[in-house]
Design a protein that fits this description.
This protein is of the alpha/beta class and 286 residues long. It is built from ten helices and eight strands.
């Protein structure tokens, strides 16, 4: 059969083949094809987001403008580029590094804590789990004398030589043992139970969970404070580069519709000079 006769043979069947193909697409579009396309696009977007976050890009959700708290304004006014700058324009929290206070944190995070505590918890309460050598506790307390700042840590991590409590006390002395600081050497569950059984009406405006970061403890560390948080509150979480932390935070927000993540930034590596190992802010009623 020559080339021309082959074309002539096939031609009568082409319309039928096109019609059958159209019918197949029509009959299977919603059941197979559309879900496949949507899933492929979702996976592509998720892969792009993971790459962006690993390379230090931020995940920022817009927050409605209020006089009390505006995350976008805070970022734009205090950093040239918050994603890459290693310190804010206001260098007041550099006082910690000048005082040789070391911690698994950065000046960016210290300023964030200090400024948000000043805005949200003036004459209120800041509580943190995981005080270590006192870097974050001092970040909240310095320049905020009217804020009660409470730290809880049993030094079960990063303390092979059993010196962390000694270093904490030494760091507090460097700043005159701020009168607005209290510290409890306890497991976080024990500490929370002890504190709020004594002060049943106490409410926390800003809470920072920096304890053990397994999925179970991360989620429990957020849940345990629910009865003790103010109606309007802010939660800080670090080490968000870790999947266990991100998943626990995500599940906590999914459980409680009144909470939302308003800021999250991951870093290229643990110990990055801008945002250490990632940082996230969760809020309620803002």
């Amino acid at each position: 059969m020559d080339h021309k006769s082959l074309k002539d043979t096939i031609r009568p069947y082409l319309p039928l083949a096109v019609i059958n193909f159209y019918r197949y697409l029509r009959d299977h579009y919603y059941k197979y094809i559309l879900p496949f396309v949507i899933r492929a696009l979702y996976e592509f977007r998720a892969a792009i987001n993971r790459i962006r976050e690993r390379n230090g890009h931020s995940k920022l959700q817009k927050l409605g403008n209020t006089k009390e708290f505006n995350i976008e304004k805070l970022l734009s006014e205090n950093w040239v580029d918050f994603k890459t700058d290693v310190h804010p324009k206001d260098r007041r929290m550099n006082i910690l590094s000048k005082g040789l206070v070391k911690g698994m944190s950065t000046e960016n995070i210290a300023f964030f804590i200090n400024e948000i505590v000043k805005t949200i918890a003036c004459k209120g309460v800041y509580l943190e789990v995981g005080t270590f050598n006192g870097y974050s506790l001092l970040s909240a307390a310095l320049y905020n004398p009217s804020t009660r700042c409470i730290g809880i840590d049993n030094f079960s991590q990063f303390d092979l030589e059993h010196k962390n409590e000694i270093l904490l006390c030494a760091n507090l002395r460097k700043f005159g043992n701020p009168k607005n600081i209290q510290f409890y050497n306890m497991d976080y569950r024990e500490g929370v139970n002890y504190l709020f059984s004594k002060e049943t009406n106490l409410k926390v405006d800003v809470y920072y969970y920096d304890g053990e970061h397994s999925y179970e403890n991360q989620l429990e560390g957020l849940r345990v404070m629910l009865p003790h948080l103010s109606e309007k509150c802010v939660i800080f979480v670090d080490d968000t580069n870790r999947e266990s932390v991100t998943k626990a935070n995500r599940d906590f927000v999914a459980e409680h519709a009144d909470f939302k993540t308003i800021f999250k930034i991951n870093t290229k590596r643990n110990g990055s000079p801008n945002w250490w190992n990632g940082f996230e802010i969760i809020t309620r009623a803002f």
